[in-house]
Design a protein that fits this description.
About 80% of the residues lie in helices and about 0% in strands. It is mainly α.
Length: about 70
């Protein structure tokens, strides 16, 4: 994905993280964590290996799994 698309993805997850009534507190915390992870590693995601939002989110979840274990 291109940097601009990834920045838009970060903003999407930031917005979702503010909608506690819709998603609940736990899910919003997850969305914020996802946005932070993408932002912190944005250079990693500006890569041909990450073509879609799903590719990036899968990678983020793998990072979380490693961190949480």
């Amino acid at each position: 994905m291109e940097r601009k698309q990834i920045e838009e993805l970060i903003e999407k997850y930031r917005r979702m993280g503010t909608q506690e009534l819709k998603y609940g507190e736990e899910k919003c915390a997850f969305f914020d964590r996802v946005a932070d992870q993408i932002k912190d590693s944005i250079e990693e995601y500006v890569d041909d290996d990450f073509l879609t939002e799903e590719d990036i989110i899968d990678s983020v979840k793998e990072v979380f799994d490693e961190d949480d274990n």
